[in-house]
C-alpha cells in the first residue's frame, strides 16, 4: 500500500445556530494514500463541504469550528497548527478546488496574477520565472491559448476554462493532497467529462492524492478508488468503489444507489418508466401542442442612441408537436435555449412563430393571454423555493390559480385545495405553512399542485428536478409519471440530465445553439443517436457503475460557441431529415457541433 | 502713510462703483477711493467742500456754482476737471447705469428726461470752464449740498468707465486717498495709499486689507488674537457683554451715535392698522426697554422717527409711553376687544427674529395675536412694497440709516406719499397730503438763513407723523467700534457718523 | 466606450437643461422683484420700469428663459443683479476654495470612513467594531452645523490648535474638511463594513486563503478592490450631498466658496447667481456620477460601458 | 408581525437604546403641555440678567434660558413636537411619493416608467438643500410648508430604491410564476410585489426620519425653517448660534438633542433593515 499522507480521526465540526451548536460533521475518520482518489459522496447538507473546510482550516468564522478530532498530514496535526504555519500548508501541501468556478476566481484580477500569486507565495521567485511557471501549469491543464489566458480576466473565460484555471492554481505547487469540492457540479456534462478526464490524467502524472467531493454517484463511479458515503455528518459507508456500488452495506447507501437514474437503464424499452415501458398509443389523435418556427431573439442595445446592436439568437426556428398524454423532453447544454422555448410557450416573453395549443392559436403579441388558453398550459419551475411567493401560505398559493380564474370559491375551493394536497402527497394541514417551512421536495410538490389546480392539458417542467437530491428527485419523477398515467396530461420536460430524460420521456428533442438538431422517439434517439452533438452528449454522461468506467474522454472536446450575433446574421437552419419513424436529424447545419 | 491694517466683513464687497455701491461694507470704502464736491469734516456731520474749493448759491436757491480744486489727480494720473463732474452725474441718472442713487438727483434740471433715457445728460449741469461747474435746479433743494457729498455723486473718470464698462466696480479709479491694489473675489481686497492725494499727510496708512466672508464672532475672536484690527460688522451681539465686561477690551471699544432708527411699520391700508387707535395701541404696547435689554443695551429706546443726532430731533416729545392697559382700551375702542390676528414680517438674520418675538409677546399681552414671517431680506422688502402684503414689518437689518444728515432723508421715501407706491419703501403706506405739502415747503427753504426755520418745520412734521402713528419707533442703535490696540485715531474718527465703520483716511497704526 | 460617454454626456446635458428650466421657473415665481432691488429705495416707478425692461424682466417667462439659455450656451451666466459682476467670474473666483474643501472633505471621508469600515469588518462583533459603528452612527446623525460649531469651539476657540475660520493655509482647511467629512465618513464606514463583510464571504476570498496567502495580501489585493466597487458609485452620489453641505459648512467657517456665494445670493434674491450656482452644482453632481461610472470599469473589468 | 418585529428589536442592544431614546423624546413631546416647567414662549423677566444675558443652567432653569429669557428645557420639549411632526409627516409623504413613483416606474415600464425615472434623475441633480431653500423662500415657511418642502426633496432617494427593488422583484421567479398562472397586473402588483416592498418602505420610513429631522434643523438653522416663536431644535440653534462661546448651552444642548434623535432613528431603522430583510440575516 502506498504511503499514507492524510489521516482524519474522529473529526467533529460544529456550527453555531440560534438554537445552540449543531454538529455537522460527526466523528468522521478516514485515511488518504498517495496517488489515491477518495470520493466523499452524500446528499446535500450531509457535511461534505464542512469536512473539507475543516481540513483546510477555512471554516467560516466565527459560526463554525472544529470541536474535536485530529487531522494528521504526514503525522502533524493540522488542527493544532497556528494560522501562520497553516498558511504554509494551504496551497502548498493541500490545495483545494471549489464548486463554483464562476465565483471562485477574483473578478478584478487577471488569471496570470492569480495564478502567479499561488506560485510565488510558497516559492518566491522572480517575476519572469513566475510567468513561465504559470504558463507551464496552464499548458498542463490543457487550456486553449494559454498565453492569452494569462492576460484575461475570469469573466472572459467559460466555466470549463475557469475550472481548469482553478485546477492549475491548485496544482501549481505540486501539493500532496488535492481537495476538490464538487468541481464539476456547475458544469455541463461535456465540460464535466473534460475536467474529470483532466484530473485523472494529472493525478496519473503527479501522484497527488485527491479527495473528491460530489453528490453525483456517476462521478463517484467514474473517479473513485475508495468511497465514503456521508449522511447527516456521519460516514455511513466506506470502502472500495466496487464494494460500495456492488454490495452496499448500509440501507441509506442502498436507497441512494437505487434512486440514481442510470443512463441506459431503459435500453430496449419503448415507453417511459412510469408506463412500465409501454409506448404511447397515439392513434389518430391530433397534436395537443403544435409549435412551428418558434424564434426568440433578445436585443442587445448600445451606442449613442441605445439602438439594437446585437442579438442573442436564443431560439431559432424550433418546431415540434406534443400529443395528448405524451412527454416530450428537450435536452441540451446550458444556454442552448431550452428554458427560452418553454417560457415562450407560456407567453412570458415576446416570440415569433406559430403556436397552437388544443386547437387555439396563441397570439404572440399579447403578454396577457386570454385566460382560457392560459389554463391549458402550466409550468413548474426549476427552483421551487424561488417560484413560490415566500410571504404566502402554501394553501393560498395552491388556491390562487383557482381564484384568479374564478373556478372555485368558498368551501369548494377548500375541497379542491385539499384534494390537490392529497394528490401530490402533502399533508392537508401543511396548507397553513409558508414555503420556507418545507423541504425542497415538498416545495416542488406544492408547485406541482399549483400547476395542476387548473387541470391543464400540458405542463412545462423546466429543470423541475435538477435542484433536488436524487432520492427526492426519484419521488417527484414518480409523482409526475403517476399523474400522467391518471389523467393523460402531457409534459414538455426540459432537462440537461440525460439519465432523467431517458427515464421519463416518450420523445426527445436535442437542442443545440437554439435549434433542434435531433428529435424522435426516446428509444430511437438514445439507442441510435445520429447527430454528432447527440452522440457527444450521450458519451459525456458518467455512468454510476465503476465497471463501465471510461478510460478516455478524447471524444469530448471544445466549448459551446456564443449565440450572440450581429444584426445582419442569418442563421443556418437545421434541415431536419427523417431517418426513421418520427426520427428527424439535422444533416447539413451546425457542423461545428462535433 | 505707514503700516497696514486688516478689516473684516461677513458679506462680500459687491462693487466699488460709486454709482452703484449701496451696502454697509462698500459705502466707506468707496468714500476712501473717490471724492465728491462736498464732504463732511472727519468725525462730524459738518459739510465742507472737498473737490470743490468753494461754492456759491444763487439767491433763489436754484443755482449752485462750484469752484473746483486744481491739480487733483485721478489714480490713473489724469487731472480732475469740471467735465468729470458733469459726466459723473449724467452717468448716475442714466437708466443704463441702474444706479440705486439716481433718485437723489431729481431736483436737478433735466432729471426727468435724463432718467427716462430720453436725453443724454442733465441739462442742469453746465461746465463753465475746467475748474467751474454750475448746477441749475428745477426747485430749491435744501439738501442739495448733502447730496453732493453722497457716494453717488463721487467723481469718476470717463475713460476708466469706458474701459471697464460694467466691470468698473471691480476696477475703480477715483481721486480718493486710497486706491485698489488687489481684489480676490470672495476673499480679500487690498487698498494702498494714494501718494498724490490732495490732502497732505492723508491717508495715514500704507494699505488696508479687507477680508470678507468672516463671521462677526470669528472676526472678534481674531481681533482678540491680534489678527484683525477692525471688525467691520461691529461687535456681534453674542460677544457684546463679554467684551464690555472685560477690562482688557473695554478700552478698545468706542461708542457713538449713528443716524439710525429701528421701527415697526404698521400698514395703514390693512386692517386693523387702518385704524389709528390700533396703531397708537401698538405704540403703547411695545416694551422698548425690554427689547433694548434683549439686545444687551446696545441701543436707546426711541419715540420718534428721527434719531437724536439728526437735526430736527424733538427733545421735548415724549411719544407714546409704555402702557399696555391703555393700549388694551384703545384696541377695545377700535372694536377689537376680543383681540385681533395679524402678521409681522422680519428679516431672517440674528437678532431680528428675536426682536420680532419680543414684539410679538408684547402685543400678545394686549390681545393681538401676531404671526411671524421670518424671510430673506429681499422677500421682506418685496412684501413691504405691496399694499396688501405685510401688515407689520420690523425694519431691523434693512433699517433706515440716513444717507445724509438731513431730516428730509427720513421722510420722502419712507413716510411720504411718493414712497407709498408699489415697490416703494413706505411700508406703512402712510400718505398724508398735508404733511407732504409741508415737507415740500421745508425742502424749498434752501437759503442758509432759513436753515433754522426749516429744521423747526421738519421737527413739526415728524411730530405730527407720530400723531398718526404709522410707525412704532423702537430704538436708535448705538455704534460700537472695537479696534485693535495698535490702531490709533481719535474716538470721533472711529465712530464717524458718515464713514462706517471708521474713516479709513484718518486712522493710523502704532 | 466613446459612444457610451457621448450618450451619458447627452443625457447629462438634458438633465442640466431640465434643472435650468425648473430652477428658472421657481426663481421666476419668487415674490421679490429684482428691478426694484436694483433701483434702490429712492427710485421712481419709471426707473424701476426702465430697469425691468433693460433686464428683459417684462418679457414672458419662456422668452426670458430662452434668452438666458441662449447666453448660457455661449458660456455666459449673466451678470449679478446686485454685484454687477459676471456670475461666471464670481463662481470661478470661488470655485477653487470649494473644490479644495471638497477635496479635503473627500479625503477625510475616505480615510476615516474606509479605514473604520474595514477595521469593523475584520474585527466584526468585537468591541472595536461596535465602538466604530456607534461612532459612525453618530456621524450620520450629526448635522453638519452642529459638528462645525462644536469643532470650531473646541479646537479653535478653546484649544487654539487651528485658526478660527478663514482660508489660505493648510491649517485653515482642517476643521472645515473634517466637519464636512464627518457625515460622509459615517456613511462610508457603514457601507465599507457591509461591503467588506460581503466580499470576505465570497468564494474567491476563500480561494485566496486556500492558496496560503497571508492576511494582508488577501485583504488588500483580493478583498479591498472588490469591496470598493459599491463605494465608488456612492462617491458620485456624495457630490450632491456636498453641494448641500457647503452652504452650511462654509458659512460656519467663513470659507470663501460658492456655498457662501449661494447663501448670500439667496438672501438677496440675486437670481443670476442662484441660477449659476445651481447649475454648477447640478453639473458637479452629474459629472460626479458620470465619473464614478467611468471609474468603476477601471477597477472592475466585468463592467463594459455600452 | 408587528409584535414579532418589536420583540426582535428589543433583543438588539443598540436598537433598544434607539427605541428608548425615541420613547423618551416622543414622550416629552407629547406630554410637554403637562410636564414642561414653563410656557415655551414666555419671555420671562427673570430669564435674563439685568444686562440682558441668558441664564446658564440652574435649579430654576434646568437647562438655562435663551436670549429672550425663555426656558430652554421647555422649548426643547415643545421643539421635539416640531421635529417629530416634521419627521413623521414630511418623511411619510416622501416615502409615499417615492414609493408610488418607484413602483409605477419599476413595474409599468414603457413611457410612463421612463418619464418618471427621468424626473427622478432630474431631481437627483438638484442640490437638495439649495432647492429646499428656494422652495421655502417661495412658499413663505411654516411648519407644514417646511414639511412639504422636505418631502419634495426627500422622495427621490426612496423612489430610486423602490424602483431598483421593484425591477429586481419583477425578475424574481415567483413573479414569473404568477404571470404563468394568469395573474393580472394588479394582482401581482398589490398581492405579490407590495408586501415585499413594504419592509423597504418601513426601513426608509424610519431611516428617513433621521434625515428629515436633520434637514429641518438645517433649514431652520439657515433661517428658512419653522417660524419663530414655534420652537424647533434647528431654529433654537439658529437663534443662538452666535452665542456658542458666551452661552454654549444654547447651542450644544439642542445640538446633542438633534444628534440623539437622528441617532435613535438610525439605530432603529438599521436594525429594522436587518430584521425585515432576510437576506441580510447574520451580518451582525
Ligand atoms: N455557515 C453555516 N452556518 C450554519 N450552518 C451551516 C453553515 N454552512 C453549512 N451549514 C450546515 O452544515 C451542514 C453541512 O453543510 P455542508 O455544506 O457541509 O453540506 P454539503 O454536504 O456540502 O452539501 P451540498 O451538497 O449542498 O454542498 C448543513 O446542514 C448546513 O445547513
Ligand atoms: N432575457 C434575456 N436577455 C438576453 N439574453 C437571454 C435572456 N434570457 C436568455 N438569454 C440567452 O438566451 C440563451 C438561451 O437561454 P436559455 O435560458 O433558454 O438556456 P437554457 O438552455 O435554458 O440553459 P440552462 O440550462 O442554463 O438553463 C442564452 O444564451 C441566454 O444567455
Ligand atoms: Mg457542499
Ligand atoms: Mg434553463
From TrEMBL, chain A:
Superkingdom, taxonomy of origin: Bacteria
GO biological process, one term: peptide transport
CDD domains (alphabetical): ABC_NikE_OppD_transporters (cd03257)
Topology class, membrane: Peripheral membrane protein
Record bears the keyword Lyase: no
A GO CC term assigned to this protein in UniProt: plasma membrane
Pfam families: ABC_tran, oligo_HPY
Localization per Swiss-Prot or TrEMBL: Cell inner membrane
InterPro entries per record: AAA+_ATPase, ABC_Ni/Peptide_Import, ABC_transporter-like_ATP-bd, ABC_transporter-like_CS, Oligopep_ABC_C, P-loop_NTPase
Record's keyword terms, sorted: ATP-binding, Cell membrane, Membrane, Nucleotide-binding, Transport
Gene Ontology molecular function, alphabetical: ATP binding; ATP hydrolysis activity
Annotated ranges, domain ABC transporter: 6-257, 289-538
Coiled-coil positions: none
NCBIfam families linked: oligo_HPY, PRK10419.1, PRK11308.1
Recorded family membership: Belongs to the ABC transporter superfamily.
Protein name: ABC transporter ATP-binding protein
Upper lineage: Bacteria, Pseudomonadati, Pseudomonadota, Alphaproteobacteria, Rhodospirillales
TrEMBL record, chain C:
Alphabetized SUPFAM superfamilies for the sequence: MetI-like
Pfam families: BPD_transp_1, BPD_transp_1_N
Protein name: Glutathione ABC transporter permease
Coarse class of the protein's main subcellular location: membrane
Keywords: Cell membrane, Membrane, Transmembrane, Transmembrane helix, Transport
Localization annotation: Cell membrane
UniProt-listed GO biological process terms: transmembrane transport
Species this protein is from: Thalassospira alkalitolerans
The family this protein is said to belong to: Belongs to the binding-protein-dependent transport system permease family.
Membrane topology field: Multi-pass membrane protein
UniProtKB/TrEMBL annotation, chain D:
UniProt KW keywords: Cell membrane, Membrane, Peptide transport, Protein transport, Transmembrane, Transmembrane helix, Transport
Entry keyword annotation includes Transmembrane helix: yes
Subcellular location: Cell membrane
Membrane topology term: Multi-pass membrane protein
Domain ABC transmembrane type-1: 80-269
Any one biological process term the GO annotation gives: transmembrane transport
UniProt xrefs under InterPro entries: BP-dependent_transpt_permease, MetI-like, MetI-like_sf, OppC_N
UniProt similarity note: Belongs to the binding-protein-dependent transport system permease family.
Protein name per the record: Peptide ABC transporter permease
Amino acid at each position: 500500500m502506498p504511503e499514507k499522507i492524510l489521516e482524519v480521526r474522529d473529526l467533529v465540526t460544529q456550527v453555531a445556530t440560534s438554537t445552540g451548536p449543531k454538529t455537522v460533521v460527526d466523528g468522521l475518520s478516514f485515511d488518504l494514500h498517495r496517488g489515491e482518489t477518495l470520493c466523499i459522496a452524500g446528499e446535500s447538507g450531509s457535511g461534505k463541504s464542512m469536512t473539507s473546510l475543516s481540513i483546510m482550516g477555512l471554516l467560516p468564522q466565527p459560526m463554525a469550528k472544529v470541536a474535536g478530532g485530529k487531522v494528521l498530514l504526514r503525522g502533524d496535526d493540522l488542527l493544532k497548527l497556528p494560522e501562520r504555519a497553516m498558511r504554509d500548508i494551504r496551497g502548498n501541501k493541500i490545495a483545494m478546488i471549489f464548486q463554483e468556478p464562476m465565483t471562485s476566481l477574483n473578478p478584478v484580477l487577471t488569471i496570470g496574477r492569480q495564478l502567479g500569486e499561488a506560485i510565488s507565495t510558497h516559492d518566491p521567485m522572480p517575476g519572469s520565472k513566475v510567468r513561465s511557471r504559470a504558463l507551464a501549469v496552464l499548458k498542463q491543464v490543457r487550456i486553449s491559448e494559454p498565453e492569452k489566458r494569462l492576460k484575461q480576466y475570469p469573466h472572459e473565460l467559460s466555466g470549463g476554462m475557469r475550472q481548469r484555471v482553478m485546477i492549475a492554481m491548485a496544482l501549481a505547487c505540486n501539493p500532496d493532497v488535492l481537495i476538490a469540492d464538487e468541481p464539476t457540479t456547475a458544469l455541463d456534462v461535456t465540460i464535466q467529462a473534460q475536467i474529470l478526464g483532466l484530473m485523472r490524467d494529472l493525478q496519473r502524472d503527479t501522484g497527488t492524492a485527491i479527495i473528491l467531493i460530489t453528490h453525483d454517484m456517476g462521478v463517484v463511479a467514474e473517479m473513485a478508488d475508495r468511497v465514503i458515503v456521508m449522511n447527516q455528518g456521519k460516514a455511513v459507508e466506506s470502502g472500495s468503489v466496487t464494494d460500495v456500488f456492488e454490495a452496499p452495506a448500509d440501507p441509506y447507501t442502498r436507497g441512494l444507489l437505487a434512486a440514481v437514474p442510470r443512463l441506459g437503464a431503459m435500453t430496449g424499452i419503448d415507453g417511459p418508466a412510469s408506463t412500465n415501458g409501454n409506448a404511447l398509443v397515439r392513434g389518430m389523435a391530433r397534436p395537443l401542442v403544435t409549435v412551428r418556427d418558434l424564434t426568440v431573439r433578445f436585443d442587445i442595445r448600445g451606442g449613442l442612441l441605445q439602438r439594437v446592436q446585437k442579438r442573442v439568437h436564443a431560439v431559432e426556428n424550433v418546431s415540434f408537436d406534443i400529443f395528448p398524454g405524451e412527454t416530450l423532453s428537450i435536452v441540451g447544454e446550458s444556454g442552448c435555449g431550452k428554458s427560452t422555448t418553454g417560457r415562450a410557450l407560456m407567453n412570458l416573453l415576446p416570440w415569433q412563430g406559430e403556436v397552437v395549443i388544443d386547437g387555439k392559436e396563441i397570439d404572440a403579441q399579447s403578454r396577457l393571454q386570454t385566460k382560457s388558453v392560459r389554463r391549458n398550459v402550466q409550468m413548474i419551475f426549476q427552483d421551487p423555493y424561488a417560484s413560490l411567493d415566500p410571504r404566502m401560505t402554501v394553501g393560498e398559493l395552491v388556491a390562487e390559480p383557482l381564484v384568479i380564474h374564478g373556478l372555485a370559491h368558498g368551501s369548494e375551493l377548500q375541497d379542491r385545495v385539499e384534494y390537490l394536497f392529497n394528490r401530490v402527497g402533502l399533508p392537508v394541514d401543511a396548507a397553513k405553512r409558508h414555503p420556507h417551512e418545507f423541504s425542497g421536495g415538498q416545495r416542488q410538490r406544492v408547485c406541482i399542485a399549483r400547476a395542476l389546480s387548473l387541470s391543464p392539458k400540458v405542463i412545462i417542467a423546466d429543470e423541475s428536478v435538477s435542484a433536488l437530491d436524487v432520492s427526492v428527485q426519484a419521488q417527484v419523477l414518480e409523482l409526475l409519471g403517476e399523474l400522467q398515467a391518471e389523467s393523460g396530461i402531457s409534459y414538455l420536460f426540459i432537462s440537461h440530465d440525460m439519465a432523467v430524460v431517458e427515464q421519463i420521456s416518450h420523445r426527445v428533442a436535442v437542442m443545440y445553439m437554439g435549434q433542434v438538431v435531433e428529435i424522435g422517439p426516446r428509444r430511437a434517439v438514445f439507442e441510435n443517436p445520429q447527430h454528432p452533438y447527440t452522440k457527444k452528449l450521450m458519451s459525456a454522461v458518467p455512468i454510476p457503475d465503476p465497471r463501465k468506467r471510461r478510460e478516455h474522454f478524447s471524444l469530448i472536446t471544445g466549448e459551446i460557441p456564443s449565440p450572440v450575433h450581429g444584426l445582419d446574421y442569418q442563421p443556418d437552419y437545421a434541415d431536419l431529415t427523417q431517418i426513421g419513424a418520427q426520427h428527424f436529424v439535422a444533416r447539413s447545419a451546425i457542423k461545428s457541433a462535433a | 502713510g505707514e503700516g497696514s491694517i486688516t478689516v473684516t466683513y461677513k458679506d462680500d464687497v459687491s462693487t466699488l462703483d460709486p454709482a452703484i455701491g449701496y451696502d454697509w461694507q462698500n459705502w466707506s470704502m468707496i468714500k476712501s477711493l473717490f471724492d465728491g464736491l462736498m464732504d463732511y469734516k472727519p468725525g462730524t456731520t459738518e459739510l465742507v467742500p472737498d473737490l470743490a474749493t468753494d461754492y456759491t448759491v444763487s439767491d433763489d436757491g436754484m443755482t449752485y456754482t462750484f469752484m473746483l480744486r486744481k491739480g487733483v489727480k485721478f489714480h490713473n494720473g489724469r487731472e480732475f476737471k469740471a467735465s468729470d463732474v458733469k459726466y459723473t452725474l449724467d452717468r448716475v441718472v442714466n437708466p443704463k447705469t441702474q444706479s440705486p442713487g439716481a433718485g437723489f438727483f431729481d431736483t436737478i434740471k433735466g432729471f426727468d428726461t435724463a432718467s427716462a433715457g430720453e436725453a443724454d445728460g442733465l441739462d442742469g449741469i453746465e461746465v463753465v470752464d475746467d475748474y467751474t461747474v454750475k448746477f441749475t435746479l428745477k426747485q430749491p433743494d435744501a439738501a442739495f449740498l448733502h447730496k453732493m457729498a453722497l457716494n453717488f455723486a463721487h467723481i469718476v473718470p470717463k475713460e476708466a468707465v469706458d474701459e471697464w464698462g460694467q466691470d468698473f466696480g471691480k476696477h475703480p479709479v477715483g481721486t480718493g486717498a486710497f486706491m485698489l491694489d488687489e481684489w480676490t473675489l470672495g476673499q480679500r481686497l487690498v487698498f494702498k495709499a494714494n501718494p498724490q492725494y490732495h490732502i497732505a499727510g492723508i491717508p495715514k496708512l500704507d494699505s488696508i486689507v479687507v477680508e470678507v466672508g468672516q463671521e462677526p464672532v470669528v472676526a472678534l475672536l481674531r481681533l482678540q488674537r491680534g489678527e484683525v484690527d477692525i471688525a467691520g460688522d461691529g461687535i456681534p451681539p453674542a460677544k457684546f457683554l463679554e467684551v464690555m465686561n472685560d477690562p482688557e477690551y473695554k478700552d478698545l471699544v468706542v461708542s457713538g451715535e449713528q443716524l439710525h432708527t429701528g421701527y415697526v411699520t404698521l400698514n395703514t391700508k390693512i386692517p386693523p392698522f387702518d385704524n389709528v387707535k390700533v396703531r397708537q395701541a401698538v405704540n403703547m404696547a411695545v416694551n422698548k426697554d425690554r427689547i433694548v435689554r434683549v439686545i444687551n443695551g446696545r441701543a436707546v429706546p426711541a419715540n420718534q422717527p428721527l434719531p437724536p443726532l439728526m437735526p430736527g430731533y424733538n427733545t421735548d416729545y415724549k411719544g407714546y409711553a409704555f402702557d399696555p392697559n391703555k393700549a388694551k382700551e384703545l384696541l377695545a375702542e377700535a372694536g377689537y376687544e376680543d383681540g385681533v390676528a395679524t402678521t409681522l414680517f422680519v428679516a431672517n438674520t440674528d437678532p431680528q427674529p428675536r426682536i420680532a418675538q419680543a414684539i410679538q409677546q408684547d402685543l400678545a399681552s394686549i390681545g393681538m395675536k401676531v404671526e411671524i414671517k421670518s424671510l430673506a431680506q429681499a422677500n421682506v422688502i418685496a412684501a413691504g412694497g405691496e399694499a396688501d402684503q405685510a401688515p407689520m414689518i420690523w425694519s431691523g437689518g434693512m433699517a433706515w440709516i440716513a444717507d445724509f444728515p438731513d431730516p428730509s432723508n427720513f421722510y420722502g421715501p419712507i413716510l411720504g406719499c411718493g414712497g407709498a407706491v408699489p415697490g416703494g419703501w413706505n411700508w406703512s403706506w402712510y400718505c398724508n397730503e398735508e404733511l407732504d405739502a409741508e415737507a415740500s415747503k421745508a425742502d424749498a427753504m434752501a437759503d442758509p438763513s432759513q436753515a433754522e426755520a426749516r429744521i423747526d418745520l421738519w421737527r413739526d412734521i415728524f411730530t405730527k407723523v407720530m400723531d398718526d402713528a404709522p410707525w412704532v419707533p423702537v430704538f436708535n442703535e448705538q455704534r460700537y467700534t472695537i479696534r485693535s490696540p495698535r490702531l490709533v485715531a481719535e474716538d470721533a474718527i472711529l465712530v464717524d457718523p458718515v464713514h462706517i465703520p471708521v474713516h479709513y483716511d484718518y486712522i493710523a497704526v502704532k | 466606450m466613446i459612444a457610451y460617454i457621448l450618450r451619458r454626456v447627452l443625457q447629462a446635458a438634458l438633465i442640466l437643461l431640465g434643472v435650468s428650466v425648473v430652477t428658472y421657473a421657481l426663481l421666476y415665481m419668487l415674490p421679490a422683484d429684482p428691478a426694484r432691488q436694483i433701483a434702490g429705495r429712492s427710485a421712481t416707478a419709471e426707473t424701476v420700469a426702465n430697469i425691468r425692461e433693460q433686464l428683459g424682466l417684462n418679457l414672458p417667462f419662456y422668452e426670458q428663459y430662452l434668452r438666458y439659455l441662449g447666453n448660457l450656451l455661449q458660456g455666459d451666466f449673466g451678470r449679478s443683479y446686485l454685484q454687477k459682476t459676471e456670475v461666471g467670474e464670481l463662481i470661478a473666483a470661488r470655485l477653487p476654495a470649494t473644490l479644495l474643501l471638497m477635496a479635503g472633505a473627500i479625503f477625510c471621508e475616505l480615510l476615516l470612513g474606509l479605514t473604520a469600515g474595514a477595521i469593523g469588518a475584520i474585527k466584526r462583533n468585537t468591541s472595536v467594531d461596535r465602538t466604530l459603528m456607534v461612532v459612525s452612527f453618530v456621524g450620520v446623525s450629526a448635522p453638519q452645523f452642529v459638528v462645525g460649531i462644536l469643532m470650531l469651539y473646541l479646537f479653535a476657540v478653546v484649544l487654539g490648535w487651528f485658526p478660527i475660520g478663514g482660508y489660505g493655509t493648510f491649517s485653515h482647511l482642517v476643521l472645515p474638511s473634517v466637519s464636512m467629512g464627518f457625515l460622509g465618513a459615517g456613511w462610508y464606514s457603514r457601507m465599507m463594513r457591509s461591503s467588506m463583510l460581503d466580499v470576505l464571504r465570497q468564494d474567491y476570498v476563500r480561494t485566496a486563503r486556500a492558496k496560503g496567502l497571508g492576511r494582508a495580501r488577501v485583504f488588500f489585493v483580493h478583498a479591498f478592490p472588490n469591496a470598493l466597487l459599491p463605494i465608488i458609485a456612492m462617491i458620485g452620489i456624495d457630490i450632491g450631498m456636498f453641494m448641500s453641505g457647503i452652504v452650511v459648512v462654509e458659512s460656519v467657517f467663513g470659507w470663501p466658496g460658492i456655498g457662501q456665494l449661494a447663501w448670500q445670493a439667496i438672501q438677496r434674491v440675486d437670481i443670476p447667481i442662484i441660477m449659476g450656482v445651481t447649475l454648477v452644482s447640478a453639473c458637479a453632481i452629474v459629472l460626479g456620477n458620470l465619473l464614478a461610472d467611468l471609474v468603476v470599469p477601471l477597477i472592475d473589468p466585468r463592467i463594459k460601458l455600452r | 408581525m408587528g409584535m414579532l418585529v418589536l420583540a426582535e428589536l428589543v433583543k438588539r442592544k443598540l436598537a433598544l437604546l434607539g427605541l428608548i431614546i425615541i420613547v423618551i423624546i416622543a414622550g416629552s413631546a407629547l406630554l410637554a403641555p403637562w410636564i414642561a416647567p414653563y410656557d415655551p414662549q414666555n419671555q420671562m423677566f427673570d430669564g435674563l440678567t439685568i444686562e440682558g444675558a441668558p441664564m446658564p443652567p440652574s435649579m430654576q432653569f434646568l437647562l438655562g434660558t435663551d436670549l429672550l429669557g425663555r426656558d430652554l428645557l421647555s422649548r426643547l420639549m415643545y421643539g421635539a413636537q416640531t421635529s417629530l411632526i416634521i419627521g413623521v409627516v414630511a418623511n411619510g409623504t416622501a416615502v409615499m411619493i417615492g414609493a408610488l413613483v418607484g413602483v409605477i416606474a419599476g413595474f409599468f415600464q414603457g413611457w410612463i416608467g421612463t418619464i418618471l425615472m427621468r424626473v427622478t434623475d432630474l431631481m437627483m441633480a438638484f442640490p437638495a438643500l439649495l432647492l429646499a431653500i428656494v422652495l421655502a423662500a417661495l412658499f413663505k415657511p411654516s411648519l407644514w410648508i417646511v414639511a412639504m418642502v422636505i418631502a419634495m426633496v426627500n422622495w427621490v432617494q426612496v423612489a430610486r430604491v423602490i424602483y431598483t427593488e421593484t425591477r429586481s422583484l419583477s425578475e424574481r421567479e415567483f413573479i414569473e410564476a404568477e404571470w404563468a398562472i394568469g395573474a393580472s397586473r394588479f394582482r401581482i402588483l398589490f398581492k405579490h410585489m407590495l408586501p415585499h416592498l413594504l419592509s423597504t418602505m418601513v426601513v426608509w420610513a424610519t431611516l428617513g426620519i433621521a434625515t428629515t429631522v436633520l434637514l429641518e434643523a438645517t433649514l431652520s438653522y439657515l433661517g428658512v425653517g419653522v417660524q419663530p416663536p414655534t420652537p424647533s431644535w434647528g431654529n433654537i440653534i439658529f437663534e443662538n448660534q452666535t452665542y456658542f462661546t458666551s452661552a454654549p448651552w444654547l447651542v450644544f444642548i439642542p445640538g446633542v438633542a438633534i444628534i440623539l434623535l437622528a441617532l435613535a432613528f438610525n439605530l432603529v431603522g438599521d436594525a429594522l433593515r436587518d430584521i425585515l430583510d432576510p437576506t441580510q440575516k447574520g451580518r451582525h
